[in-house]
Amino acid sequence: MDTLQVFPHVNAGLNALSSVFLLCGLVFIFRKDVRKHRLCMLSACFVSGLFLICYLTYHSLRTYYLGLGPTRFTGEGVIRPIYFTILTSHTILAALVAPFVLVTLVRALKGKFDRHQNLARLVYPIWLYVSLTGVAVYVLLYQIYPAR
């Protein structure tokens, strides 16, 4: 397996790890354990940032240096519209949620907890959805229906 082929697996792992941090962060804030919540949410931000770097690197190398197009989804039948619905919602929401994650983080770091909490209630479920659907896209594209 060449280096480029490792990226999708790493990216899925980073998305899965981000999901774990997000879920643990939610549990900790419900338990009023702010210190552990903060650690989990900072970790989720870090891992998501690392994912973004890896994702952009992979697609830049694949497109600009190798001249390859996107990986083709080979599933047929009912799974095809399901996959593309997941992929489309994942892509759109990922682009939209990223700046709001940063604003939510900044509000928490500045101690503006009321404003942080109000925004986090909207941003958190979208961020979790994006992380989980990133893993779903990987499983469908690279594990269940890999390119032939």
**Structure annotation, total helices:** 4
- Beta strand count: 0
- Report the biggest beta sheet as strand number plus sense, adding barrel if it closes: none
The helicity comes to: over 70%
- CATH superfamily label: Cytochrome c oxidase, subunit III, four-helix bundle
Structural class of the secondary elements?
mainly alpha
Examine the secondary-structure arrangement and name the CATH architecture.
Up-down Bundle
Taken in chain order, the helices and strands follow as HHHH
Tell me the Rg in angstroms: 17 Å
- Structurally, the number of domains stands at 1
Q: Give the overall average pLDDT.
A: 96
CATH class: Mainly Alpha
Strand content: under 5%
According to CATH, what is the topology? Four Helix Bundle (Hemerythrin (Met), subunit A)
Low-pLDDT segments: none
What general outline do the C-alpha atoms trace? elongated
Word description of this protein:
- The protein has 148 residues and is mainly α.
- The chain has one domain (3-144): Cytochrome c oxidase, subunit III, four-helix bundle (Four Helix Bundle (Hemerythrin (Met), subunit A), Up-down Bundle).
- Helices cover 83% and strands 0% of the residues.
- The chain is built from four helices and no strands.
- The protein has helices at 3-30, 34-65, 79-109, 113-144.
- Helix 1 packs antiparallel against helix 2 (34-65), helix 1 packs antiparallel against helix 4 (113-144) and helix 3 runs antiparallel to helix 4.
- The mean pLDDT is 96.
